[in-house]
Amino acid sequence: MYWRCKIMWAAVMALRKKALDAGILSNRRVGTDIYRLEIDCPFLAEAGVPGQFLQVHIEGPGLLLRRPLGIAEADAGAGTIAMYYRVVGKGTAALAEMKPGQTVNCLGPLGQGFSLKSERPLLVGGGMGLAPLLFLAQRFQGKAAVLLGGRNKAEVFWSEFFAPLTLQVFITTDDGSAGEKGFTTALLPALLAKHPFDVVFTCGPDVMMRKIWAIAKQADVPCQVSLERRMACGLGACLSCVIDTADGGRKKVCQDGPVFWAQEVF
């Protein structure tokens, strides 16, 4: 009875969103194992906000659950959405094989997005955490700066995508092959001391975001974080993404997030 109610609740929640077949416009590799998927879906392009995600259904044997992919770019005029994904398993490997002209079924937009109330935002991310920040940079229309990090020069290819959308691009690499040598957290204190940033937005591994929040807190700058968790339904019914919050409560990353103010969850 419990799970029957959960399934019924998921169905009710799904009706509040839209599950749409979207035509694939392009699906190309942009990094070593990272792909950019662009789809034709005017509703999602108009309705989606930075920080939200889609649950994408991929056809194939054993691929029952949808995959959550963050919205990375949206063009309401053209009616297009772009998402970035890393090939890590059967689902994303099958997605990488899909060609323009095929369709994917997308449920969304889902989740709570970033706040857009900032005059001088700083976006901080590494790896796939940079994808949702790209959409945020787009919405800030040239007001934002971005601090991005990677292990080496090959992993900071994201700078090419952020450069046309931001005032400044700061780069760190572990091996020093591009930008400053070190982690994003090593450069962040100096940036907050030198520039009048009023909000820090970050997405990436928890350990990185915890350090970023601690540095932002020390500088008295608010910080929003986008959490990355495994999500089965994306609608708050399966409870696979529930987290403990700082006040002792519990929240669903897919429904209450994935974006939170840092002090709520760390």
Using only C-alpha atoms, the radius of gyration works out to 18 Å
What proportion of the residues form beta strands (DSSP E)?
A: 25-35%
**Helix run count:** 9
Q: What is the chains' assembly state?
A: single chain
Structure description:
- This protein has 266 residues and is α/β, with parallel strands linked by helices.
- Helix content is 27%, strand content 32%.
- It is built from 9 helices and 16 strands.
- The protein has helices at 2-15, 42-47, 90-96, 130-139, 159-162, 184-194, 206-218, 253-256, 262-265, and strands at 18-29, 34-40, 53-57, 67-70, 73-75, 80-86, 103-110, 121-126, 145-150, 168-173, 180-181, 199-203, 223-226, 242-244, 250-252, 259-261.
- The strands form 3 sheets. It has a 7-stranded antiparallel beta sheet.
- α5 links the parallel β9 and β10 (168-173).
- The protein starts with a helix and ends with a helix.
- Mean pLDDT is 91; it is low at 1-16.
